[in-house]
Amino acid sequence: MARACRFVIFGATGHLARTKLLPALYRLEAAGRLPVDFSVVCFGRRPYDNESWRGMAVEALQARYGNRMDIDALERFAERLEYFRGDLADADSYRRLQAAISADAVFYLAVKSAEFPVVTQNLAAAGLADESQGWRRLVVEKPFGRDLDSADGLNRLLHSHFREEQIFRIDHYLGKETVQNVFVFRFANLIWEPLWNRNYIDHVQITHGELAGVEGRADFYDNTGALRDMVQSHLLQLLTLVAMEPPAAMDAESVRDEKVKVLKSIRPIAESEAASCAYRAQYAAAQGMPGFLEEPGVAAGSVTETYAALRLHIDNWRWRGVPFYIRTGKRMAANSALIAVRFKQPPQQLFQSTGVGREPNWLLMGIQPEQCLRAEVQVREPGLKLTTRHSQLDAGTCGCAAYHLEAYEALLLDVIEGDHSLFLRYDEVMWAWRVIEPVLRAWGRERGCIDTYAAGTWGPEDSRRLFEGEGRFWRNSLAD
Fold first, then answer.
1. 172 annotated as a binding-site residue
2. Is 87 one of the annotated binding-site residues?
3. Which of 4, 155, 324, 351 places its Cα 20 to 30 Å from the Cα of 307?
C-alpha cells in the first residue's frame, strides 16, 4: 500500500515557493506523478487559513498558466494544500508540526541561508528528523555558505541532526532538460566520445547571461556578487558535466564521484594570478537602464561584481592544456545560457589556398532560452566555384512544441522518490569553494575600483584578455 507523504515548505509565502515550488508541484499533479496520499504543508507566519491560502495559490497558478491550465488538475492540487501558521524561531510551532505529521516527510527550506540553522535545530529538537515513523528528507537551497569556512560550519550543523542520505542540496540548473541531456549526448553516442579530449578540442566556454539586473534583491546581491551566486554553484556544475569521465553506473554516487574528480583536478589559481585568470566588472547605466550603483539598496561605492569571468584548466589526462572559459553577468544583451565547445582545425589545411574552409567546428548546447544541441560544420556551397558555408545540425528540442520539463519539476520528483543523482554531495560544494576562494580573496583586497560595462551589452570588451591564443572570441548565444 502506498505510504502517506507530507511535503513541508518553510517560507511558503516567499518568492521561491510562489514562483517555483508550487508551480512545479502543480505540474507534477497534472502529469499524474504525485503519490495518492500526498499533501503540501505550507509553513508561514502570515494569517492565512486553508481556504484563503488555497484561493491565493489557485489565483497565482491561473495567472501563470492562463489557457494552458488543466482545471481538473488544479482542483485536485488545491485539495492537497494545507496552510500551517508558525514562526521559524518558535520551538512550539515545530512541536505542533510534529504532532500533525506521522508519515514520510520532505522539509524544504525555502528561506534565507542565515535561517537554515534555526530551522534544522528546531526540526531536530521536535523529533522531526527521526525516521521511526517514516523517512525524512531535508532540502536546502544555495548559497551553501559564503566561503569554505561557513560552508564547513553549515555542513557540520546539518550532519549533527540529519544523515547525509537525508540531505538534498539543490541546484536548479541540474534539473534543466538540456543539462541532463549532456549525459545522454556524451555517453550514449559513440560518435563524440573519441573526440572529447585535448587532442581535438581547442577550448570550452560556459556562459550565463541575464537581461535583468538585481530586481529587488539588491541587499542579497551586493553582499554576494556574481562569483559566489553563479560560478561557485551553477557554472562549475556545468563544467563537471562537460568534463567528467563516464561513471561506472548511472546511480547518484557514481555520477557524483566523477564530478568531484573533475573539481579536484582544476588547477588552483594563486591569489597572485587572479588578475590574469579572472575578470570582474559591474554594469553601468545605459539604454535607459540604471547602473548597479543606482539600484535601490546597493551601498554607495560598492565594488560588488555583476559580471565575472574565469579561465580554468583541468590538469588530467583528458583535458590537460584545454582552457575552460566561464562567465556570467547581469544586465546583458539577452537571456542566454550556453555551453560552446570549439574544435581544433584539421592538421592539414587543404583549402587554405582557396580562402575557404577556415571556420572551426563548434558544438553548442543551448540551455536557455532555447534548449538545443547544435553542431556547426563546414559544407560545400552548390555551384561551379569552390566555396563553403556554415551548416547547422540541430538536435533536441529546437523548434519543437513538445512538453518541456521545468527544472524544479524534475528535482522535486527526485526528492519525493529519494534519488540524489541531480543533487550535490558536500564534497562537490567544498571543492567548488576551493576553486574560487583565491579569486574572492584577491578581489577582496582590491576594494578601490572596478571596471564597468554598459547595461544591455554582452559585457566588458576587456574580458577578452582571458583568451589564450589568437582567433578566440565569446559565443554569446545560439543566434551568433
1. yes
2. yes
3. 155
